[in-house]
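Submission checklist for the structure archive. All mandatory fields must be present; incomplete records are returned to the submitter.

[x] Identifier: Pentatricopeptide repeat-containing protein
[x] Organism: Anisodus acutangulus
[x] Residue count: 150
[x] Sequence attached
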Amino acid sequence: MVSVLSACSRVTGKTLTQGLHGFVTKRGFDEDMGVGNTLIDAYAKCGEVDLSRKMFDVMPEKDIISWNSMIAVYAQHGLPAQAMEIFRSLAWDREVDYNAVTLSAVLLACAHSGALQAGKCIHDQVIKMNLEDNVYVGTSVIDMNSGSIS
């Protein structure tokens, strides 16, 4: 089901995604974490950020992919405050550890919002986690500091 959802998400049709979501639910796959993560991505690709969030909220269990996906959805759709809200929830949750992908997405959100102070705090965390050499994180730090994202 994850492969089918992933392939169909490239079509970017809300109707197709919702139809597949209904099929997944009828077949009892709706509580599978991989299916949930793929639906978050599929809804985001067709511009349905609210449906991505609803999917995230109803997932009984979340892994780092779930959290990173939701942060990235908000960051990529120009909703930095919501991305930061999800990151704060993840940091407080402590059941899942964040990683380089998480920090890169949060730095993207900071770049979109011009939140240089928050970005500096995230950069401090990058240094603490010894991720300065990570290509994705490094690029996000540069983007945030250069103000190249508007």
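[x] Structure attached
Curator remark: The chain has a mean pLDDT of 83. Residues 104 and 140 are 6 Å apart (CA to CA).
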